[in-house]
Structure formats: C-alpha cells, structure tokens
C-alpha cells in the first residue's frame, strides 16, 4: 500500500508540474495550423503565448486537461515504481531508503 500511495502522490506532483508547459507548448505548436484567431498564440514565442493565455483566460487555463493527464500517468507510475522496487528486492539490492 505504501508503494501505491507514493506512486499516486508522484503522479499528482508530476501531472501538476508538467501541465502548464504541456498546455503552452500544445497551443504554441498548433496555433499556425489552426489559423484564424488562434494564430496570435504562435506569433512571437512560447513565453508570449503563455502570457496571452493567462491574460485572456486566467491562470486556470494552464491546468486544462489535468484529469485526463493524471488518469493516463497514474497507472504507469503505480506499475513502474512498484515493479522497480520489487525488482530491486529480488536481485538483493533492497528497497530504496
């Protein structure tokens, strides 16, 4: 249970930290192909895109899609971190302290 809880906490932290970068990068890279009103997001650079997003929609826009990203990442974290710890135990290295 400790490994599962720790893995879920790691998934929450990872998702929360990477979502602003993911949202800005996605908007910046897709701005030219979307065209129209979206073209202004990709006009000058990622920093300007982030500033424009925050100015127009507020800081909450940077966490758009957090739940799907967490639901995608949580099983990977639980499986891989638990497997990693069990493999360390199996080969005689022991758990991480």
TrEMBL record:
Coiled coil: none annotated. Residues 1-17 form the signal peptide. InterPro entries: MCP_dom_sf, MCP_transmembrane. Solcar repeats lie at residues 1-90. Its main location: membrane. This is Uncharacterized protein. It is a multi-pass membrane protein. GO terms for cellular component: membrane. Keywords: Membrane, Signal, Transmembrane, Transport. PROSITE patterns: SOLCAR. Belongs to the mitochondrial carrier (TC 2.A.29) family. Gene3D superfamilies: Mitochondrial carrier domain. It is found in: Membrane. It comes from the Eukaryota.
């Amino acid at each position: 249970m400790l490994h599962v809880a720790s893995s879920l906490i790691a998934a929450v932290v990872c998702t929360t930290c990477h979502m602003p970068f993911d949202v800005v990068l996605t908007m910046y890279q897709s701005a030219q192909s979307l065209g129209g009103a979206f073209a202004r997001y990709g006009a000058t650079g990622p920093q300007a895109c982030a500033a424009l997003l925050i100015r127009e929609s507020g800081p909450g826009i940077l966490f758009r899609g957090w739940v799907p990203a967490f639901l995608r990442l949580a099983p990977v974290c639980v499986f891989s971190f638990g497997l990693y710890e069990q493999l360390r135990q199996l080969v005689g290295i022991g758990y991480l302290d």
